[in-house]
Amino acid sequence: MPSNLNFNSGKQSTTSTSPHKVNITIAFKWQQSKIRVAAKNAASVGSGVTWGLNSLSHYTPEEFRARLGYKRSGAVEARNIPALKNADVTQAPSAFDWCLSEGKCTPIKDQAQCGSCWAFATTENIESVWMIGGNSQVVLSPQEIVDCDTGASGCGGGDPAQAYPWVVQEGGLDTASSYPYTGEQGTCNFQPGAVAAKISGDNNVFGGSENQMAANLASTAPFSIIVDASSWQDYTGGILPASQCGQSLDHAVIAAGYDLNNQFWNVRNSWGAGWGENGYIRLQFGQNTCGLTTEVLKSYSIFL
Question: Is residue 285 part of a domain?
Answer without folding.
Answer: yes
